[in-house]
C-alpha cells in the first residue's frame, strides 16, 4: 500500500468519526499549514494564523471527496487559504511575502514557455517538474496571486440579502439561512458538469485557468459556462 492510499484510508476512517484517524490526518498535514502561513506577513502572530489555517485543514479533512481523484494537498491548499482570506477580510490587511511573489513570476514564465512548446496549457505537475518544485509549491504560488483579488461582488441580491462569490454553500454562518438553503438545493439540481464547475470555483476556489485545465476546455468556455450557471441560479432563486 502506497502512502497516498494509506492516507486515503485514514481519511475514510476520520470522516466516519474515528478521532484517532482524524488526529493522524491533521498531524500529517501540519507542515502544509505552516508552509502556507509562513508566506504571509501581517500584524497577526504566525501562531494565530497557524490556528486559523488548521481550521481550514480540518474542513478539508471533513469534506474531501476522493471520487474527484485529486491529491489531498491539491484540495486542502485553497481551503486553508480561504480560511486565512476570511480572517484578513474581517480583521485586517496582509501582504504576500516577496519570495512567494518571486515564485509566482517564476511559475508564470515556466507556464508560458510550456504552453508555447506543448501548444496547450501546462498542468501543475508539468510546471513543477520543469522548476524542480513540489506540486503544492506551484499551486500555492498560483493561488496566492488570486488571494488579493476582490471576491465581494454579489451575483444574487433579493430583499436586501446577497450571496457573494466568496460565500460557500455549505457555510452555515450566513444570517440568511433560507437563502443559503435555497441556493444549495438549486445547485444540487444542476447537471453534473455544472455542479463540478461550481465545486471547483466556489468550494476549491480555483481560478478559471485552473478549471479549464481540470475540465479540458478553454478559459473562455469556462467563463461562458460559469456565467450561464450563475444566470440560471439567479433565475431559479428569483422565482422562489
Walk me through the structure.
- This protein is mainly alpha-helical and 240 residues long.
- The chain contains twelve helices and four strands, in the order H-H-H-E-H-H-E-H-H-H-E-E-H-H-H-H.
- The strands form two sheets. Strands 1-2 form a two-stranded antiparallel sheet. A two-stranded antiparallel sheet has the order 3-4.
- It is globular.
- The model is unreliable at 148-176 (pLDDT under 50).
Query: How widely separated are the two ends?
Result: 50 Å
User: Uncertain spans, ≥5 residues at pLDDT below 50?
Assistant: 148-176
Q: Which oligomerization state do the chains in this entry correspond to?
A: single chain
% residues in beta strands: 5-15%
Tally of alpha and pi helices: 12
| Major sheet description | 2 strands, antiparallel
Order of helices and strands: HHHEHHEHHHEEHHHH
Query: How much helix is in the residues?
Result: 55-70%
Mean pLDDT: 76
Number of strands: 4
Structural class: mainly alpha
Rg over C-alpha atoms, rounded to the nearest angstrom = 18 Å
Shape: globular
Instruction: Walk across the major sheet and give the strand order.
Output: 1-2
Q: What are the defining features of this structure?
A:
two-stranded antiparallel ribbon; 12 helices; 240 residues; mainly alpha; globular; 68% helix
Amino acid at each position: 500500500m502506497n502512502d497516498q492510499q494509506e492516507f486515503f484510508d485514514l481519511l475514510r476512517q476520520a470522516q466516519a468519526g474515528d478521532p484517532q484517524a482524524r488526529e493522524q490526518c491533521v498531524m500529517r498535514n501540519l507542515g502544509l499549514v505552516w508552509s502556507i502561513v509562513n508566506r504571509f506577513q501581517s500584524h497577526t502572530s504566525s501562531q494565530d494564523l497557524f490556528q486559523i489555517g488548521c481550521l481550514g485543514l480540518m474542513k478539508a479533512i471533513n469534506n474531501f471527496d476522493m471520487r474527484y481523484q485529486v491529491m489531498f494537498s491539491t484540495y486542502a491548499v485553497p481551503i486553508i487559504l480561504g480560511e486565512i482570506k476570511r480572517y484578513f477580510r474581517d480583521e485586517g490587511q496582509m501582504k504576500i511575502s516577496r519570495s512567494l511573489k518571486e515564485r509566482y513570476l517564476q511559475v508564470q514564465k515556466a507556464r508560458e514557455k510550456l504552453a508555447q512548446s506543448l501548444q496547450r496549457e501546462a498542468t501543475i505537475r508539468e510546471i513543477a517538474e520543469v522548476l524542480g518544485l513540489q506540486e503544492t509549491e506551484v499551486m500555492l504560488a498560483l493561488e496566492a496571486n488570486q488571494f488579493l483579488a476582490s471576491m465581494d461582488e454579489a451575483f444574487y441580491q433579493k430583499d436586501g440579502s446577497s450571496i457573494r462569490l466568496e460565500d460557500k454553500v455549505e457555510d452555515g454562518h450566513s444570517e440568511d439561512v433560507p437563502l443559503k438553503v435555497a441556493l444549495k438545493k438549486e445547485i444540487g439540481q444542476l447537471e453534473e458538469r455544472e455542479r463540478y464547475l461550481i465545486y471547483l470555483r466556489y468550494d476549491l476556489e480555483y481560478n478559471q485557468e485552473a478549471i479549464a485545465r481540470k475540465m479540458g476546455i478553454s478559459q473562455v468556455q469556462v467563463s461562458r459556462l460559469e456565467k450561464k450557471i450563475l444566470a440560471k441560479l439567479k433565475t431559479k432563486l428569483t422565482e422562489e
